[in-house]
Specification:
Strand content: 35-45%
Order of helices and strands: HEEEEEEEEEEEEEE
Largest sheet: 5 strands, antiparallel
Shape: elongated
CATH architecture of the largest domain: Roll
Number of domains: 2
Number of strands: 14
Structural class: mainly beta
Oligomer: single chain
Length: about 160
Amino acid sequence: MFTRLFILFLLFVGLAGPGHAQDREVPYWASIRASVLNMRVGPSADYKIDWVYRRPGLPVKVLRLMEGWRLIEDPDGARGWVVARLLSPERAAIVTGEGLADMRADGDDGAPLKWRVEPGVVGALGDCADEWCEFVVGNRQGFVRESRLWGAGEP
C-alpha cells in the first residue's frame, strides 16, 4: 500500500513540476526559450499573431497567467499573449540607455573595466547587489549597473 502511494506521489510531482514551473505570482521576469515565438492579441492560437520574436534569451515581464498562456511585456513595452511552455524561468537582461555600458570585474565603479556593452545586447542575469548585476554574454562575464539592464530588479 505504501509503495503504491509513494509511486502516485512521484507521478504527481513529476507531472506538476515542469508544467507548473511558471505558475506563480505575477508580475515576474522570464526569458524567451524558443527560436521563434508568436505573440498573439489574445490567449489562444485562434487569435491573430501580432508579433514574432526571433531572439531566444530575450527578457520579458509576465503580467498575467491564463490556462497555458502568459501575457507578457517586452523591453519595448509591447504586450501580448504567448504560449507558456515557450518561456523559460531563467533570468536574462538587455542593455538599455544611451551609449556603451561598462562591464566591470566587480560591482564597483573603481573595479577594472573588462568590456563595454552596446544597448540591445542580451545576456544571462546573475545576482544583483548594491546597484550592480552579474551579467554574462557568451563567454564574457562581469558586472553592469542595474540601471542599464532591463530585466533586473523588481518586475
